[in-house]
Amino acid sequence: MADEWMSDRVRSAEASAGTTFDLSECVRERIHHLGGVQSHGTLLAADPESGIVDTAADNTGTLLGVGDLVGSHVTTVLADADWAEVLAVLEEGDPNAVTLPVLAGIAGHRAAFDLSVHLREGLVILEFEPRDESAVHQFAAFYQEIRRALRRLRSAESVIDCCRAAVGEVRRLTGYDRVVVYRFEDIDGPGEVVAEDVREGWEPWVGLWFPATDIPPQARRLYEENWIRVIRDVDDPTARLRPGHRTATGAPLDLSGAALRTVSRFHLEYLRNIGVRSSMSVSLLREGRLWGLIACHGAEPRGLAPEVRSACELFGTAFSMQLVAIAERERADAMERSSQDVAVIAGMLEEDVDASLLRHEAAIRKLVDADGVLLVRAGRVSSGGLRVPEDVLRALAPYAVRATPDGLWSTDRLPELLTEAGIAPSCDGCPAGVLILPIGHSGDYLAWVRRERPMPREWAADPAHPVFVGPQGERLTPRGSGAAYRSMIRGRSLPWSAREQAAARGMGRLLTELVLRHADELGQLNDELRMTNLDLDSFAHAAAHDLKEPLRGIANAATFTLEDAGESLDGTSVRRLETMSRLAARMDDLLNSMLHYARMGRAGLRREDVCLDDVLDAVLEVAGARLEEEGVGLVRPGRLPRISADPDRLFEVLLNLVVNAAKYAADRPDRVVEVAVEDATPPGEARATPTVVVRDNGIGIPYDRQAEVFDLFRRLHGPRERGGGTGVGLAVVKRIVERHGGRLWLTSTPGEGSAFYFTLGAEPPDAGGRPLASSQ
User: pTM above 0.70?
Assistant: First the structure.
């Protein structure tokens, strides 16, 4: 845990201190298993079923009059009625410790104690503290003072104002010499003193930062579990627990919930270094996580009765709620202001969202006070302002899918994150902060970036030397002298404020609305286009079918005239009739091709799992003679994969492409056409996909005419050249591939050959389909 939590900077600083002290011991220390309690009170741990004492502090003889209570019944020092009340209280299920006034000790000589009880490791933990009757009489007045203090907190307008009011109230109520509010930078980061009330003559701490290692993670977890922690005297001798390790667990008793829990030697040294004899810490939580602490320090030993501790805990709870209320009010104000800013942007954007965003990139940047903006959509990157290098851009992609439930991901220390991920930014001017707004679920996003803003920081300890050797040996030194250590924080941007994040969310709602509206309009246009295509298909089918009958009559009339009167006609008339008959036959071929093309748009697909080798064998049965006639050999790998396709339509695609290769074979002895499946990248896409390729070494196609070959009735040679034809074959191939949801494209070099690539898309989800190719 320590190795994971301690940063490289902290470990390097520790090593540079030149001592043998291992700071990671602070992080590894099991502070809830220290095996002792503060000696002004005592502790028993008993089984709730049997009442037998499992663990006891070694000062029970001094405080309760009975030593070595392990194995005895708890009623040896506690009345039967009080033990019954303890069990009844615990049955109510309150997870926090409950305090009861009791008489405890040896029968006949019992004294007044405050008894705090809670459950841990299946045992009843009983903490006894001698009851100060005078403090009891003062509690009612103290509680009223707490309530008045809380009322005064409600008038605070900001978090800092609230903290300043709180430290004054707590110091007045408790009498400690210094009270500060200490706010953590983040969950496991360093902390800053943001408010203070201090006795005259003590050094002011406001504005000072304390290293993260001052409060390691296990201490932070306990602060989240227990709202209050009181240390009566740093020189307390500690009452040890007996046995030191429980038989049931092999470890010391877990004292996580114990108010009397003894104190880490590291923390005691910490307090001694700053001249503190007693302390109290009250946790400040936000959304269940530790936001900060109210830390109280006294120059002399000071104890607080359980009732007073409870009142201080109440103050901390209410103070935390007030901080949340202020934060929520600030968030609401920020959302209102950001909504107004976003409304201005909304008036600038047009139907072409991408283009209009970039036209108004200065206003988009100003929305969140950013130095640059970039838009990533469908693999295209557009940016304005601060340049984002390629390597940083690639590194941002994974973070776009880590957005929080509110739809954002942000950091003000991007170089630090990239370094931890093993990425070294390639320029000094790289962004230091980024705020990412995902657009949809495809990995597209809009991001704002900020440049580095070096920030001065004053530390209460030299962050480069966390320990030093003093008169008592190696010592932690959070504050060894009156000097404040100044440093410059690099590699960070200004943090993203609540208002800026609210503006980004507003921008997200606006973009979602625009994109959805555009998608609706596009869907409507697609529906209209689909209907138009159906009408055109129907028209082409009807027109071709209806035109064939009169055309057949014209062809028959010309043929019959030639047969019946050919000998009596002059040569010119015969040639004209022969031309009429030839053109009628040509027209009939074109109409047949049109009918076939229209049929491809009307017929349904019958997709199934197809063996590509079987389809190619069927193609060779039809086209084999043509390949042999042209002297073209077929090349294919030992075994082709299975694919999901309509077998009849796939046969037609391969037949057209193979015959096309034979038609346009080059004048060379090694004429070949190859059919294979390869990973290829379709034009305009970034990722390769399994693709069927039909490759030849024929005459090739000029680059400027490659787009024409898939047009209907378009041939690059005359009607009688290269075997003739109507120019429909490749158009039909294109239509079949697109009906499958695939892509068709070609590459060609004149004189070297052509390669036709096609994919067939995925089968619709309700058909249980496969990808284009799968291994057998």
Answer: no
